Amino acid sequence: MSILNADLHCHSVVSDGTLEPEVLAARAAANGVELWALTDHDEIGGQHRAAAAARAHGMRYLTGTEISVTFAGETVHIVGLGFDADDAQMKRGLEETRGGRGERAKEIAAGLGQVGIKDAYEGALRYVGNPELISRTHFARFLVEIGACKDTSEVFRRYLTEGKPGYVPHRWASLKHAVNWIADAGGIAVIAHPARYKFTANEEYALFTEFKAHGGRGVEVVTGSHTAAEYVKYAETAREFGLAASRGSDFHSPDESHTDLGKLPYLPGELTPVWELLADRIQ
Ligand code: AMP
Ligand code: MN
Ligand code: MN
Ligand code: MN
Questions:
Q1: CA–CA separation, 80 vs 177, rounded Å?
Q2: Quick check: pTM over 0.85?
Q3: Fold for the domain defined by 101-158
Q4: Which residue of 11, 18, 54, 266 has the fewest C-beta atoms within 10 A of its own C-beta?
């Protein structure tokens, strides 16, 4: 069961990816993905298209999303898998989570304006596929376009992270709500790329403990955002907390992502893969 090319984390134009769900499905299939999930940020508008495209390519499919959560003053991402894509509570919760993005984007643009980058709001909007989902990634693409930085990583480093001119703190969903929306809709909540958060050991312990207490059941172990050493570290964390393990590239764009769909190591054999818990939710 661990030896399965499952890619359960990626983004389309419905959030901050650059490809349409159908193009992603074709790319995943060409790369040998057997079980796929599209996990757009705070949005499930692409789910029916993704499931249909997966079917057309002979891939199995799990519904997916990646919910932005504020925990201990940091943004944490919770991936939801295998939920009912028409669930009303889930749709409402995600709509609320998306709600503040427009205002935040205007504040980001104002911050960038103060360091001489003009019309960033309009510039970022040209990269947006979904008007409800303007994200820092769209600003990053605009700043690369105007030559302010050589790539999007440099934009984040110089402009869009804490302490930088285009950084605007934001309150996302609560951990409890995100986990509940997913679980109540029949799915499984998974902590995304845990190595990416700037937590102390105590804060990370609190995240995993509270996540479990709310009903969270999985953690990403093998992801495009982790190093090989971090696969080992979070395999151990999965065992310690009795969580199932997930695998996903976090692919956004052929021009930006260093890990392509399906192109990452298999899960360590001793872990329970999340898809084992979701056998009856696979389409
Ligand atoms: P937002 O939800 O608007 O705060 O944007 C978050 C998104 O920005 C993430 O999902 C990533 O796609 C992207 N991102 C965050 N940090 C970086 C980084 N250091 N380099 C490139 N992209 C990043
Ligand atoms: Mn993203
Ligand atoms: Mn993420
Ligand atoms: Mn992601």
A1: 12
A2: yes
A3: DNA polymerase; domain 1 (1.10.150)
A4: 266
CATH entry 3.20.20.140 includes domain 6-97+171-277: yes
Helix (H/G/I), strand (E/B), else coil: 52: helix
Positive or negative CA dihedral for 103, 105, 111, 114? negative
Q: Which residues keep their CB under 5 angstroms from ion ligand 2?
A: 16
What single letter denotes the amino acid at residue 89? Q
Q: Which residues surround ligand 4, an ion (CB under 5 A)?
A: 66, 250
Give pLDDT tens digits along the chain (283 positions).
779 999 999 999 999 999 999 999 999 999 999 999 999 999 999 999 999 999 999 999 999 999 999 999 999 999 999 999 999 999 999 999 999 999 999 999 999 999 999 999 999 999 999 999 999 999 999 999 999 999 999 999 999 999 999 999 999 999 999 999 999 999 999 999 999 999 999 999 999 999 999 999 999 999 999 999 999 999 999 999 999 999 999 999 999 999 999 999 999 989 999 999 999 999 9
Q: Which two tokens stand for residue 54?
A: 């997966």
CB of 15 closer than 6 angstroms to any ligand 1 atom:
no
Distance between Cα 66 and ligand 1 center (Å) = 12
Question: How many Å lie between the centroid of ligand 4 and the Cα of residue 251?
Answer: 7
Q: Name the residue with the closest Cα to ligand 1, atom 8.
A: 137
